Amino acid sequence: MNNPRTWLVTGCSTGFGRYIAEHLLKQGERVVVTARKIEQVEDLARLGEALVLPLDVTDPQQARDVVAASERVFGAVDVLVNNAGIGYFAAVEETDPRAARRLLEVNLFGTAGMIHAVLPGMRQRRRGTIVNLTSIGGLAGFPAVGYYCASKFAVEGLSDALRAEVEPLGIRVMTVEPSAFRTEWAGSADEVREPIDDYDATAGAARRAYHASIGQQEGDPARAAAAIYAAVNAEQPPQRLLLGNRAFEVAMAKLSAMQVEFRAWEATARGADFPDPDR
C-alpha cells in the first residue's frame, strides 16, 4: 500500500475486532492490535505491520499509554476503531445493578476514554476518523438486552454530539450498527441468574433464542470488516453504517413508525411552545 494509515483497534482477541484487524493488515495498513490478554492476539502480528499492546478500555491511563505508544511508533493514530464491548442477557427488572454499571463502564465509558485519548493528536493534525461500533440495539431496543441497548444508545448520542464538535476540525465520526453476526458475543455474554417468571415469554424467550443462534447468525464478520474498511475509505463516508439485512430492516421499520407517530402528534408537539404573537 502506497500510503498506509495507522488504525488503532480495541478488543481484538475475538469477534469483530479480530476480523477487522486481520482485514486491515491484509490490506497493508498499520494496525495497533489491542486486547486485555495480548497472548490471544500475538498471531495477528505475523500478518503485517502490527503493534500489539495490552489494553483494558476501562483504564484511562492505559488508554492514554496505548495512544502515546502508537504515536511514538507510527507517528499518528489515523483511525480509531472502538470495538471492545460486552453483553448481558436479562429483562430490565432482572438486571443486577452491578452488571448494568459494568456494561456502561465498558461499552460507554471505555469508548469515551479512547476518544479522549486520541482527540488531542487528531485535533493537532486536523485529521482523523473515529469509528464507534454500536449495534442495531443502539437504534432500537430489544427484550433481554435492555441495558446493553442503553449503553449502545448512549454511544450513538455521544457520537452525534462529538461529530458536530469535531467535523469542523477535520475529524470524522462514524457509528456502525450490526445485527446478529457469527461472533463469540452471544456465547460470552453473562446473564441473569434468577429470572422472573412473568418475563419468560419476552426476555426469557429472547435469551433462549440468542443462545440457540450461536454459530447460526446470518452476519459474516469477515464481510463486515471489509464493509467497515470500504466505508472509512469512501469519498463520502456514512455517518451511520448498518450491517446485515436484519439491521437494515429494523432501522427502516423504526424510522417509518417514528415518522407516523410524530406526524400524528405534531399538533401537540408544536402546541407546547409559548404562543407566537406574530401568528
Topology (elements, then pairings):
Elements: E1 6-9, H1 15-26, E2 30-35, E3 50-54, H2 60-74, E4 79-82, E5 88-89, H3 97-125, E6 128-133, H4 146-166, E7 171-178, H5 185-188, E8 190-191, H6 200-212, H7 221-233, E9 240-243, H8 245-264, H9 266-270
Parallel strand pairs: 1-2, 1-4, 2-3, 4-6, 5-8, 6-7, 7-9
Describe the 3D structure:
The chain has 279 residues and is an alpha/beta fold. β1 (6-9), α1 and β2 form a beta-alpha-beta unit. α1 packs across α7 and α3 (97-125) packs parallel to α4 (146-166). It has a 7-stranded parallel beta sheet, sandwiched between helices. A two-stranded parallel sheet has the order 5-8. It is 47% helix and 15% strand. It is globular and about 55 Å long. The chain has one domain (6-244): 3-Layer(aba) Sandwich (Rossmann fold).
Distance between the termini: 61 Å
Q: Could you say which overall geometry the principal axes of the C-alpha atoms support? A: globular
Structural class: alpha/beta
Largest sheet: 7 strands, parallel
> What's the helix-strand series?
EHEEHEEHEHEHEHHEHH
CATH topology: Rossmann fold
Summarize the amount of helix as a percent range.
Answer: 40-55%
CATH superfamily: NAD(P)-binding Rossmann-like Domain
Number of strands: 9
What is the highest CATH level, the class?
A: Alpha Beta
What is the helix tally? 9
Number of domains: 1
Low-confidence spans: none
**Backbone CA Rg:** 20 Å
Q: Please give the order of strands in the largest beta sheet.
A: 3-2-1-4-6-7-9
What proportion of the residues form beta strands (DSSP E)?
5-15%
